[in-house]
Amino acid sequence: xxxxxxxxxxxxxxxxxxxxxxxxxxxxxxxxxxxxxxxxxxxxxxxxxxxxxxxxxxxxxxxxxxxxxxxxxxxxxxxxxxxxxxxxxxxxxxxxxxxxxxxxxxxxxxxxxxxxxxxxxxxxxxxxxxxxxxxxxxxxxxxxxxxxxxxxxxxx
Length: 156
Known about the structure:
The structure is a single chain. 40% of the residues lie in helices and 22% in strands. By secondary structure, it is α+β, with helices and mostly antiparallel strands. Helix 2 (35-48) packs antiparallel against helix 6 (142-154) and helix 3 packs antiparallel against helix 4 (111-119).
């Protein structure tokens, strides 16, 4: 006799704070680019107060389109090295990349993921690509690194 175990699994998963069905949350944190993730990002940014940015990133705006996230295409802007939701009209360029590479590059800080993704043709750039030089060579300030760690900790 077949006994469905899915309801039991779901109850066990929810008891641990995990929604195994819709994937919005897992044991590690919030799903990258989900609505809950953006809400928590906003909270973390507000709690961090004024975050110092490297001088080479001051005034730099890059639009980012992430393909394949939880909400299909997700539009972001990298403003002074900080992610914001939505595109900005004053961006010099747009970077289009898949969600897995975006997470590795922007959240995990894996710069090699960006290089490998570009070389493999997974990342497309539109506009003035000179703005990428500042992004590639800059090092985060102490306040940026601390905020980045909090964002990494909350991201699944």
